[in-house]
Amino acid sequence: MDGAITPDRFEPWPPGIEPAVPIEGYANTFTHTPALAPIRRPATRTEVTGPTELWRKLPCGDDNLAVVGPGRMALGQLIHIAGRILDEDGRPVRGAVVELWQANAAGRYFHPNDDRDAPLDPNFVGNGRIRTDEEGRYGFFTIKPGAYPVPTPNTWWRPPHVHFSVLGPATLSRLVTQMYFPGDPLNLLDRILMSVPDAAARERLVARPIPPAEVGLGWLGYRHDIVLRGRAATPVQP
Ligand SMILES: [Fe+2]
């Protein structure tokens, strides 16, 4: 990592970007939200600038979740998600480790915690990990996930969404967030998306269509840039 572009400070999030947690009807946000306000302390230069070359510990290369082998493709709408990872000053974060996980086309996760009565897809696990190139670019080939209900007494539905974890340029600058699809009627009813108070910040969680001519035949394209911190930060999503 070039020390000249490695930030030695992080600006705090402006008001309205951080989600208002805990979120009623989403149990994890109660168990994961500290009861006391965080104690703020300045990070040391060592903490914010390293370790770099995170991919040495986190092997990358799984960028195609939809094709698991010759003739073996996941069910669902084939999509391509591409974008850039940017720092708070708009500079590309190269070498960032980008992880993605998601439900299958029926809205079910390939995970023992998800025992909902919806079909599993034998050709879809639903997670991938790659690292950004010199321009901070990443890209995944996958399928559009289905919506799924949140199992609470007054159940509600999560819209189709993709989970992201971005590590870069150092381990302290990790962002865990979610990406949504434009125009989905469930977006405005989603308690996780709507937990972000600022409307412009919520918009930064919604992908944009890529013109079909820019994507390979058969893949519906979505562009989604992710900004780590700063005024234009992509909000955290639990
Ligand atoms: Fe999810």
Molecular structure report:
- Strands 3, 6, 11, 12 and 13 form a 5-stranded mixed sheet that branches.
- It is built from 3 helices and 13 strands, in the order ααββββββββββαβββ.
- The mean pLDDT is 91.
- The chain is mainly beta.
- The longest helix is centred in the first third of the chain and has 5 residues, at 45-49.
- It has a single domain, classed as Aromatic compound dioxygenase (Protocatechuate 3,4-Dioxygenase, subunit A, Sandwich).
- A hairpin with a 5-residue loop joins β7 (148-150) and β8 (156-158).
- Residues 158, 161, 163 line the site of fe (ii) ion (FE2).
- Fe (ii) ion is lined by residues 158, 161, 163.
- This is Protocatechuate 3,4-dioxygenase subunit beta.
- Belongs to the intradiol ring-cleavage dioxygenase family.
- Pfam families: Dioxygenase_C.
- GO terms for molecular function: ferric iron binding; oxidoreductase activity, acting on single donors with incorporation of molecular oxygen, incorporation of two atoms of oxygen.
Low-confidence stretches: none
Largest sheet: 5 strands, mixed
| Associated small molecules | fe (ii) ion
The CATH superfamily is known as Aromatic compound dioxygenase
Please tell me how large the radius of gyration is: 18 Å
For the record, the count of structural domains works out to 1
Helical proportion?
under 10%
Keywords: Dioxygenase, Oxidoreductase
Protein name: Protocatechuate 3,4-dioxygenase subunit beta
GO molecular function, one term: oxidoreductase activity, acting on single donors with incorporation of molecular oxygen, incorporation of two atoms of oxygen
Family: Belongs to the intradiol ring-cleavage dioxygenase family.
